[in-house]
Automatic annotation (TrEMBL):
Entry keyword Ubl conjugation: no
Cofactor(s) this protein cannot do without: Mg(2+)
Region annotation (Disordered) ranges: 27-50, 175-203
Source species, domain of life: Bacteria
Source organism per UniProt: Isoptericola halotolerans
Any one GO MF annotation of this record: kinase activity
The protein's name in its UniProt record: Diacylglycerol kinase family enzyme
Family: Belongs to the diacylglycerol/lipid kinase family.
Keywords (A to Z) from UniProt: ATP-binding, Kinase, Lipid biosynthesis, Lipid metabolism, Membrane, Nucleotide-binding, Phospholipid biosynthesis, Phospholipid metabolism, Transferase, Transmembrane, Transmembrane helix
Length: 383
């Protein structure tokens, strides 16, 4: 079969899948200026049982439905009225999670997208209090990997109440911003990280690092996330990332030096390098088929393509195949994805590349270091 025809078939299949997902996943985003009280008024006989707190991202379309459903489900289970905390631009959930802990919450629920989940997890990491999830975002990465219901708030709340507690690993990513590139809110100031820094596990290291629960990335994937249009994300879900990625298919390959644990650094030319805690992505894609969320190890995927669209077509085919357990053993490939495992990885990039953690853009970085904190977070998963 001519390669042009192969590319056409791949493009058609991807396009149909994208269209179907867009139709199913269309939703609107609207801002709410009003804030809710931290606790719903109590009525009827007093209830006993675990206290649930819900950290809500008020910019999501179904915020009111989340609040109403959480109250109803808790009432039906004879649990105390839930506590509610709205996120803000300045605090996307970490402070609210800690406030919920201080108020005596037994379970803290992140109700929002991946950014809200990351922020709440930051506030709960290192504690024994479980984090529940009510998905309300574009990617819902951790919820997908834990098999938490994505489309039904009631079913997600049922997991919060009746699920099991599971300890999972937490990833950390620390970047060195490109000089004169500025630092986004929450990023580390350039002088706080030097090329001599290392990131062994130990007290205090997390203070200048970003948490991730699914995947951190450097290169093509982060550029795709950075360029995704917010309006399209609200309308079309994860397909907006696919459209943004199409603009970078002919971008340059980055020059990187990669250091895995204590091994000798290796030079590479790549499109993207991903460091994952688990590997299931939207669209039925499994990028890291061997990743396990509680094995104390990070899985690394090095992605490269040459030969224009033919290389990307081969890469897409390889990603789909590996998700089905089929590996391409050919030595000469113009699109390839290679895997390695690590507890600590350092990536130095010539000229800098965009960096991201769980879909949140960190900015251009000349270096990214990542490491794992085994079993650092308790999550409420399906029984």
């Amino acid at each position: 079969m001519p390669w042009e025809l192969t590319v056409g078939i791949v493009a058609l299949v991807i396009g149909v899948a994208a269209l179907a997902t867009a139709v199913v996943g269309m939703r609107r985003t609207r801002q709410r200026a009003a804030s809710r009280p931290t606790a719903a008024p109590r009525s009827g006989p007093p209830r006993t049982g675990p206290q649930i707190a819900v950290v809500v991202n008020p910019s999501k379309e179904n915020t009111d439905r989340i609040v109403d459903t959480a109250r109803r489900v808790c009432a039906e289970a004879a649990l105390p009225d839930p506590l509610f905390y709205d996120t803000t631009v300045d605090d996307p959930g970490t402070g609210q999670a800690r406030a919920a802990l201080a108020a005596g919450a037994d379970v803290v629920v992140a109700a929002g997208g991946d950014g809200t989940v990351r922020a709440v997890a930051e506030g709960l990491t290192g504690t024994d209090t479980p984090m529940g999830i009510v998905p309300a975002g574009t990617g819902n990465l951790l919820a997908r990997n834990l098999d938490i219901p994505l489309a039904d708030v009631g079913e997600a709340m049922a997991v919060v109440i009746g699920g099991r507690d599971r300890r999972i690993d937490v990833g950390r990513a620390r970047i060195t911003p490109v000089p004169d590139d500025g630092t986004a809110p929450g990023d580390v100031a350039p002088e706080a990280v030097t090329s001599e820094d290392v990131a062994p596990e130990g007290p205090g290291d997390e203070q200048d690092a970003h948490i991730f629960l699914v995947i951190a990335g450097l290169g093509f994937d982060a550029a795709m996330v950075a360029d995704a249009d917010d309006h399209l994300k609200a309308k079309m879900g994860w397909v907006a990332y696919f459209l943004a990625g199409a603009r970078h298919l002919h971008g340059r390959r980055m020059k990187a030096q990669i250091t895995i644990d204590d091994e000798t650094p290796v030079a590479a030319r790549l499109r993207s390098i991903l460091v994952g805690n688990t590997g299931r992505l939207p669209g039925g894609i499994t990028l890291l088929p061997d990743a396990i969320i509680d094995d104390g190890i990070l899985d690394v995927a090095a992605i490269d393509t040459r030969g224009g669209l033919a290389g990307w077509a081969q890469l897409f085919g390889e990603v789909v195949a590996q998700g089905m357990g089929v590996q391409n053993e050919a030595k000469l490939r113009i699109g390839r994805i290679d895997h390695v495992r690590a507890r600590h990885i350092r990536i130095d990039v010539e000229g800098g590349e965009q960096a991201q953690v769980d879909g949140d853009v960190l900015g251009r970085a000349s270096c990214m270091e990542s490491w794992v904190e085994p079993g650092a977070l308790v999550v409420r998963a399906p029984a």
